[in-house]
């Protein structure tokens, strides 16, 4: 009898030792409220990754735990990140749609021995806040810089810059100004308008009075974009030959059905278009659309999340499932792979993703839907924002 | 000079859109004494119905507007019977809590049914494009919005000041029990005024959709603006609301043209000054 019990205990102990670990990944993002669509895209990207590659690394299984921060709220973000690390015992933190949310959680990383993979937040400085931050999205500087060259090549010398008055808007204004002046152009006026602006006619009148040949604009994606582009057309600026340049936030895929004809022909630069033509992207889009439910809702945060999961699996591979943030981050420095958006590398210095930035034009497809058609590629763009900040 | 004209035209258009949406709230708050924070939610429902009718069912713009108004009123009838009727005459706090609750419910339902993306209401050919005014061009639908505002203002004024029903409304507002004693069926008067207010909200939601696009958070996003119009104009006054809209539209537009970096500073500064000078709103002074 005693032998039997011992044998059973031994069997239990042995088998549990042979059982693989479950590695928890905590994802913080906006899953409810006005920005729920972006959180939904995070989830779709992660689900697509598991659908294509499985959720196991070696013997270990990845488990994702989601936490909701409906809008930029650093205190709540920090509290949730801490809860994930302390109570849930996550080995990796990921997600983060808004810059302040990511910034607020960085002090936890070193104490908790946890790497952070930023899947969206786009301010350059985040990666400097902790050596354990890796970013797989983009920065506003990165996507706003190439459009200056596009503007100059189109024969434009005088540009008026119009941005929403908040962090990323100011980043976009500075990035464009720096790049455009380097090209030899001139920013004749820089307007910062409040985030809550909904009537853009007076702004358009100012554009007319300024004598600029083109507008550089940055607004967060969503309702205001529609009002802005419509005001631009209806006040006769488009017909008056004034060009509109912007980073791709303005023509996010989920806004295109609403923008419709008014955005047709608009040129933007961005790191990812759902229409990107590659086998990797075809597979990704199919899986992500299935995960998100409504195909029209898929847009850029999904690809940041997809690549974020790839980076996390590489970290798990390198550490063998052990909790070792320094080793995990070191393992992905300089990592290169083919993402759905094209060839990418994690820059070993900044731990930010180096990627192609594409010039796209809003085009009508044969079935009457609208998409961002890639027409020019700026290869291997790093983040000019960090250099500018120094 | 040209700039002044130009700003004036923009201000007029913006003010009129504000007026069409807010006047319904002014009616509920002034005539029925209900602080209806769910007003924007009803405007949003109107916008969603019009968008669904025009885009998915393919009906014309006029039919879509009509459907939106009728549909929103139909949705509002049970809400009035079962929820609003309990808060007539209740303290403001009760009214605020219940109507904001309704707002959140509507936001949740809209998000669930229509999704978080923007919805547009396709305009007919005649309202698309822009009209050349000589010194500048203006979008045709804005002229349409200005016209709608004038028609609504005139129609409401006629209804309240010049018809037998208007007399009953005013009587019920001044002294409900005395009006009832004299044979006015106040509950019907209230129900009809509520329906008119909701219909106007839906109409405003559709006409103003080019400026304030329809999405689930519409109901909260513009709530403060609508409330400001009513408090500056004086609740229940058509002329007051019209004046408030034109004045606030002018200040907001001028501020945005001349100094956009100050944000809505001038708008709220004007609101503070007006409310200090006329605590009962612009039209309250005439009483």
TrEMBL record, chain A:
Residues 1-20 form the signal peptide. This is Amino acid-binding protein. Residues 22-364 form the Leucine-binding protein domain. The keyword rRNA-binding does not apply. Pfam families: Peripla_BP_6. Belongs to the leucine-binding protein family. The keyword Transport applies. It comes from Pseudorhizobium pelagicum. GO terms for biological process: amino acid transport. Keywords: Amino-acid transport, Signal, Transport.
UniProtKB/TrEMBL annotation, chain B:
The chain crosses the membrane at residues 6-27, 34-54, 60-84, 96-118, 138-160, 188-212, 224-250, 262-282. It is a multi-pass membrane protein. The keyword ATP-binding does not apply. GO terms for cellular component: plasma membrane. It comes from the Bacteria. InterPro entries: ABC_transp_permease, BCAA_transport_permease. Keywords: Amino-acid transport, Cell membrane, Membrane, Transmembrane, Transmembrane helix, Transport. It is found in: Cell membrane. GO terms for molecular function: transmembrane transporter activity. GO terms for biological process: amino acid transport. Belongs to the binding-protein-dependent transport system permease family. LivHM subfamily. This is ABC transporter permease. It comes from Pseudorhizobium pelagicum.
């Amino acid at each position: 009898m005693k032998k039997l019990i011992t044998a059973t205990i031994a069997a239990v102990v042995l088998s549990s030792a042979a059982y693989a670990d479950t590695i928890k990944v905590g994802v913080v993002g906006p899953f409810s409220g006005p920005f729920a669509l972006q959180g939904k895209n995070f989830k779709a990207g992660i689900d697509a990754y598991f659908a294509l590659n499985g959720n196991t690394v070696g013997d270990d299984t990845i488990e994702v735990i989601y936490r909701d921060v409906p809008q930029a709220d650093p205190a709540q973000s920090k509290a949730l990140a801490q809860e994930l690390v302390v109570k849930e015992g996550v080995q990796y933190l990921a997600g983060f749609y808004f810059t302040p949310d990511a910034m607020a959680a960085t002090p936890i990383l070193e104490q908790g021995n946890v790497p952070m993979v930023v899947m969206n937040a786009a301010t350059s400085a985040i990666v400097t806040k902790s050596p354990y931050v890796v970013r797989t999205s983009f920065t506003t500087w990165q996507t706003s810089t190439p459009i200056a060259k596009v503007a100059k090549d189109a024969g434009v010398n005088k540009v008026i810059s119009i941005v929403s008055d908040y962090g990323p808007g100011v980043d976009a204004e500075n990035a464009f100004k720096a790049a455009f002046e380097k090209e030899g152009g001139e920013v004749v006026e820089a307007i910062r308008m409040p985030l809550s602006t909904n009537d853009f006619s007076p702004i358009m009148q100012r554009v007319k009075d300024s004598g600029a040949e083109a507008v550089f604009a940055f607004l967060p994606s969503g309702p205001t974009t529609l009002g802005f582009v419509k005001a631009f057309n209806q006040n006769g600026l488009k017909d008056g030959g004034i060009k509109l340049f912007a980073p791709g936030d303005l023509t996010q895929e989920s806004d295109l059905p609403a923008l419709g004809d008014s955005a047709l022909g608009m040129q933007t630069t961005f790191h990812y278009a759902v229409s990107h033509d590659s086998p990797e992207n075809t597979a990704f889009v199919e899986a992500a659309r299935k995960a998100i439910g409504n195909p029209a809702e898929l847009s850029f945060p999904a690809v940041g999340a997809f690549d974020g999961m790839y980076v996390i699996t590489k970290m798990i591979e390198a550490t063998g499932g052990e909790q070792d943030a320094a080793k995990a981050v070191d393992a992905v420095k300089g990592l290169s792979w083919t993402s759905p958006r094209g060839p990418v590398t994690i820059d070993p210095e900044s731990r930010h993703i180096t990627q192609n930035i594409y010039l796209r034009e809003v085009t009508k497809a044969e079935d009457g839907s609208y998409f961002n058609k890639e027409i020019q590629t700026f290869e291997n763009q790093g983040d000019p924002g960090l250099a500018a900040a120094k | 000079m040209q700039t002044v004209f130009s700003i004036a035209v923009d201000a007029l258009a913006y003010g009129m859109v504000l007026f069409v949406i807010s006047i319904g709230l002014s009616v509920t708050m002034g005539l029925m004494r209900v602080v209806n924070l769910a007003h924007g939610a009803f405007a949003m429902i109107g916008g969603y119905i019009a968008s669904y009718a025009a885009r998915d069912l393919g009906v014309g713009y006029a039919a879509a507007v009509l459907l939106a108004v009728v549909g929103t009123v139909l949705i509002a009838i049970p809400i009035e019977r079962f929820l609003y009727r309990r808060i007539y005459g209740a303290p403001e706090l009760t009214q605020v809590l219940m109507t904001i609750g309704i707002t959140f419910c509507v936001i949740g339902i809209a998000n669930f049914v229509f999704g978080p993306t923007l919805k547009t209401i396709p305009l007919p050919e005649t309202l698309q494009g822009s009209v050349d005014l000589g010194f500048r061009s203006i979008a045709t639908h804005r002229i349409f919005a200005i016209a709608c505002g004038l028609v609504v203002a005139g129609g409401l004024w006629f209804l309240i000041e010049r018809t037998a029903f208007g007399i009953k409304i005013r009587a019920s507002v001044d002294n409900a029990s005395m009006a009832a004693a004299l044979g006015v069926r106040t509950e019907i008067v209230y129900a009809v005024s509520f329906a008119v207010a909701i219909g106007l909200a839906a109409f405003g939601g559709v006409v103003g959709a080019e400026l304030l696009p329809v999405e689930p958070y519409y109901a909260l996003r513009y709530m403060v603006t609508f409330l400001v119009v009513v408090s500056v104009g004086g609740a229940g006054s058509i002329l007051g609301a019209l004046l408030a809209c034109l004045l606030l539209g002018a200040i907001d537009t001028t501020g945005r043209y001349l100094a956009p970096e100050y944000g809505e500073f001038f708008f709220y500064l004007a609101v503070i000054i007006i409310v200090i000078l006329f605590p009962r709103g612009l039209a309250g002074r005439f009483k």
